[in-house]
Amino acid sequence: MRPNTKRFLLLALALCLLAVTVIPAASAAPSLAVPVTAEPDPGLTAKSAVLMEASTGKILYQKNSEEAMPPASVTKIMTLLLVMECIDAGTLAWEDTVTASAHAASMGGSQIYLKEGEQMTARDLIKSVVIASANDAAVALAEHTYGSEEAFVGRMNERAAELGMTATHFENTNGLDDTAQNHVTSAGDIAIMSRELIRHKEILEYSSTWMDTIRNGQFGLTNTNRLVRFYRGCNGLKTGSTQKAGFCVSVTAEREGMTLICVIMGAESRDIRNAEAQKLLDWGFATYGLFTAEGGTLDPLRVTGGTADEVGLSYPQFTAVLPKADIKAVEHTVTLPESVKAPVRAGEAVGRITYTCKGQSLGEVSITATETVEELGFFDLWVRMLKGLLCICEGKPL
What we know:
Beta-lactamase; Peptidoglycan synthesis regulatory factor (PBP3), Domain 2; five-stranded antiparallel sheet; about 35% helix
């Protein structure tokens, strides 16, 4: 065999071996731990849907999540959020007396049949909105807190913009859309405002209640969200339906320390809406879990040129939502200098802890100083030198 032919055959053999061994190894690189739209598709028939993990805001599944469409009474999530923020701000108290206007009493649809001039506590009106989706109660609360429904709706749209709800425009407080021209939001935006609302734990107390009463027990309230009764872990949040909107819901459910928010919009019936919400929640709980690294402290860090020789360190909790099979694969790396130069301020970041899973970054938290260490001034240096001289004179170790 000629030398050139031999070299050619050896080169060809090497290329074949490279194709067999190297290329498959490259294709087996780890994928992103939490995909934006997870597979396989749960196969929903609703026009739009989102599944979000509440503590991180991570989207686990989405279908037409940015499409603006009528939300019906799911609108009241924003109404309740503003009311709860008024309570936080001290401009409304749970036991404040609210007087129903003629406008509030004129609302149709789901209602508690307020009469003009009737008085009720803010607590009972909030309970009526959360549990029974009362349109008249929503308007009464809006007028009491902002002076008029129009002013309240203006704030609803401002708050939506603050939260980054880019597909949302509200025209009223309750979602009635017979005369509405552009009262819309998206499944993604509903998930955002739902996540914000459930930070107020009092809402979940009422939204997880199946039946209650107002008017001294004379008027019964039944939860419009049947999943509260029939789906394990369900604790909220809000249903809605009109001819324009179809059947919509934002469902919250908690299992094993993880809370999921499931939004369904434009389903053909209440039963389909509930079944598809349950299907998406089942898939989410079966597929994902939370990785949590508790916060804590580290050994003090040496400080140079400071009024103290070291500074305490702390770091916060870190949470990530992951496929259950990947949770045990999470690793962390601590990055800290050997020392830090004064001055150091309490809360100042001096290092970080980085979390990864299968080579993919999950995020990081800062390692911060627990106290302030000032820089040594001339007087401090003089005092230290004097103390050193005294120790030498007395034969003591420095």
